[in-house]
Amino acid sequence: MKNKRRSPFAAALVIVAGLIISGGSYAAANAVVKHSNTSQAVTQSQLEEGKQLFLANCASCHGKNGVGTSAAPTLIGVGAASADFQVSSGRMPAQADGPQMQVKPVQFTREQIDAIAAYVGSLGTGPAIPSADMTAANGDAVRGGELFRINCAMCHNAVGAGGALTEGKYAPALKNIPNTRIYEAMLTGPQNMPVFNDANITPTDKKDIITYLKYLDENPSAGGYELAGLGPVAEGLFIWIIGLGLIIGFTVWLGAKSN
Amino acid sequence: MANQATAKKPGFLAERANFLDERVGVAGILKEFGRKIFPDHWSFMLGEVAMYSFLVLLISGTFLTFFFQPAMTDVIYNGVYGPLKGAEMSIAYKSTLDISFEVRGGLLMRQVHHWSALLFVASAGLHMLRVFFTGAFRKPREINWVVGFLLFVMGMAGGFTGYSLPDDLLSGNGLRIIDGMIKGVPVIGAYVSSLLFGGQFPGHAIVARLYSLHIMIVPALIIVLLAVHLFMVVIHKHTHYSGAGKKDNNVVGYPLAPVYVAKAGGFFFIVFGVIMLISATFTINPVWNYGGYDPSPVSAGTQPDWYIGWLDGALRLAPSHLEAGWFGFSWSWNILLPLIISLVFLFVVGAYPFLEKWVTGDEREHHVLDRPRNAPVRTAIGAAGVTFYAVLWAGASTDLIATNFKMSLNTVLTFMQISLIVLPIVAFWATKRTALSLQRKDREIALHGRETGRIVRMPHGEYIEVHEPVDKYELYKLTAFESFAPTLARPNEDGKITVKARMRAALSKFYFEDRVTPATQLEIDASHGHHDEQKAIEAKPAKKVATKKPAAKKSAAKPAAKKTASKTATKSAKAPAKKPAAKKAAPKK
Ligand code: HEM
Predict the structure, then answer these.
(1) How high is the mean pLDDT of chain B?
(2) Among the listed ranges A29-38, A100-109, A116-125, B335-344, which one has the minimum average pLDDT value?
(3) Do B390 and B487 fall into the same domain?
(4) How many CB atoms are located within 10 Å of the residue B229 CB?
């Protein structure tokens, strides 16, 4: 689909490529970090390590056995998926409480996260971390797109560029989010995001949605650089600042030349 | 270049050409003053930018009509764009996708069309601001201001109808808002909506109807208005910025052909080139991401194009829960209020020349532009208007501001609502104050010259800073403006002071109460006479200063300048004659 269609303005693209690169404006496409660990059986030593880590890092808020305190909710029954989502996205351990948990640099290694997730999962019955097979981006992107627009776009924007919610909360941008995390977000509904359980959106649907989001990640806009997917507002600012700016530069230059 | 300009009117400017040439030779002042002499200041080209963007719109739009199908019948997409294969969509949306992905050069043309639409309205808006702040709308150009204003409004109309054509999610959401607004109008709203959409929203008719408006009615109106606009520009001739030799009864500049025509042609290609460069590089309106219109999903970050943004912002900033039930109809003031405010705002913009003329009572023709500072209240009104518009515009992106600057949406909304009322007042006040103090500074410079930073020691030991008198061009610029005094309410034939007269007097007071009069020749002379005693004292150091400047300038300036002074003096009693103060460094006491 790309080769033929793009050729007419390939030349123009080549000319401007230098500009773009020198402007450093291309966001390098991040490779999707893939990991598969769920099929591994939970070992006793892993649980032990998880418990230690939990006591050291989480228990101050979530209580000794994850029973919850006045500062944080109980983790009994939230499942390994929830813990994996929260910790691997850098949301937990939480820091200052704002309107919403901030995404911070991840503080644990993969093994440690697995251990913590296994421990939290062992506290009660909750959703497990989905298997690599369930989250692979090989579903139907068309259905995924449709489902995404119906279920997610009102918060996350049609291209997953993110959007504002009330009271300082927001739905984050969904660019280059690991497959497992997308699945877990739907499964556990972090904070203001609703839970999309398997009756709501079946595992196949979830796979389709992941496929669609990955398609967006891997296929940059056919029309050129995207202005952060922010739509008309970014376009308007762009034409006023860059477009008119360039042209006024030329008019000043022409005016000066005439003397 | 100086020769070119002056050769146009050899009789009138012959001596001055000579005079100028000497300056050119000596100091290369031409570079600095040249621009003031020819009316091709860069800001005069903004209108051209709008015109050329419109030309590009016509060309690219015509290309699009070859492939676009304005029908809303549902079809199944089986084109090349993967994520939408097999999806149900309208023919209009499908043909837009086909233009984007299957027509050779189609995507580029769509982007050219859309980017040039944004540029068209933006440059027209900037052009309007230039005309406003320089007072170029004054007699005889009031009608042309109205025509230009209508062009701007038609630009918005063209953009809105075009934006709605692809029938994607964003444009559908836009139409839904319009539908809501129409329905918000009491009594007739519901009927108008069902007429427009051919039944219940969204119906199956709207795209085809917008299409006729978009490719026939609106462009035709724009072309007619543009023709009238340009015709009037030719009849009125161009205005110019204030400067020596530039009066209300002449124009100084290039002959239209050949210099200007060649330049304009080149400029078209520059504008075209910039549009092409942007269109080949940056995505605009990636409709394939939004999916076809479907009333159920609503995407975050749904915004109209920038020129409709201020209307959207007005809707968003209106306080909610303002419904009232009067006379058996529901009045949604949260929709009506922004609607009324927007219309009043547009009306004031369109009618401004007449409003100002009514206040000032100024019936004379004006061809020399005002420097914005010399019309403090007008400039301040403009600044307030721009601020009001800008807040409304920003109001359309409250959600994006909230996410991108990590603020609460509610805080942003409240902040904007307050800003909408407070900021224009602040802008008015600050601008007026700034303009007045700039005028005072001008007056000071005209009377006493510029500070040079050179300190001179007087024989009796006092240190003073040498003030260098400005040359006559500068002086002309600093003093050639009019200062109105507020008019008083006069009784009519029956000896009564009418309410209208009172209102007019009050407005006149509002406009002209605080003012700075230009330095008159008398004052300038007086100020120099006043310095004479000092000049005598500091004759020696002053000479030293003088040797730093080419002697030719000094000797030539005197006689030539005197002549100008006497000439301008006879021309108009109001614009005071300027005698250049250039003789010696006149220190300020
Ligand atoms: C008054 C100046 C005009 C403005 C401001 C304007 C603006 C627009 C805009 C914003 C769009 C949406 C494009 C998109 O979604 O990518 C559009 C679409 C379109 N315009 Fe115009 N336009 C103007 C004049 C014209 C003219 C003169 C023609 C034809 C002779 C034309 C033909 C079209 C067509 C066919 C489309 C559908 C494009 C698509 O499939 O995306 N326009 N216009």
Answers:
(1) 76
(2) A29-38
(3) no
(4) 21
* Structure confidence at residue B59 (pLDDT): 94
CA B171 to centroid of ligand 1, rounded, Å: 13
Are B386 and B458 found together in one domain? no
Instruction: Decide: helix, strand or coil at residue B416.
Output: helix
Q: Tell whether B224 lies on the interface with A, counting CB pairs under 8 A.
A: no
SS3 content of chain A, % helix, strand, coil (to 5): 55, 0, 45
CA distance B367 to B246: 9
Residue B527: both structure tokens together: 């100020």
| B417 plus B468 within the same structural domain | no
Segment A187-245, tens digit of pLDDT = 888 888 888 877 788 888 888 888 888 888 877 777 777 776 677 888 888 899 999 99
Residue A126 token pair? 């909750």
Which of A164, A167, A244 is nearest residue B126 as measured by Cβ atoms?
A244
The model scores a pTM over 0.80:
no
Nearest to B301 among A161, A247, A248 (CB): A161
What residues of chain A lie within 8 A of the CB of B1, using their CB? 258-259
- Verify whether the Cβ–Cβ distance B297 to A243 is below 8 Å: no
Chain B: residue whose CA lies nearest to A214: B83
Q: Which domain holds residue B470?
A: 436-588
- Within this chain, do residues B232 and B307 fall inside the same structural domain, yes or no? yes
Same domain flag for B444 and B396: no
Cα distance between residue B50 and residue B128, in whole Å: 11
Residue B158 lies in a domain: yes
Confidence of residue B94 (pLDDT cuts 50, 70, 90): very high
Domain assignment of residue B124, yes or no:
yes
Is B285 touching ligand 1 by the criterion CB < 6 Å? yes
Pick from A247, A248, A252, A253 the residue to mutate for testing the B interface (most B CBs within 10 Å). Answer: A247
SS3 B329: strand
Number of separate domains in chain B = 3
| CA–CA distance, A180 with A210 (Å, rounded to integer) | 9
Residue B93 in any domain: the answer is yes
**Are residues B301 and B445 both part of a single domain?**
no
Last residue of a domain, one of B291, B312, B333: B312
* The pLDDT value given to residue B191: 87
Interface confidence, given as ipTM, is: 0.73
Residues facing B331 on adjacent strands = B324
List the domains of chain A with CATH numbers: 36-122 (1.10.760.10), 132-223 (1.10.760.10)
On whether any CB of chain A is under 8 Å from the CB of B310, the answer is: no
Contact B385, B302 (CB under 8 A): no
Instruction: With beta carbons under 8 A apart, name residues in chain B contacting A229.
Output: 289
> Does B359 fall in a domain?
no
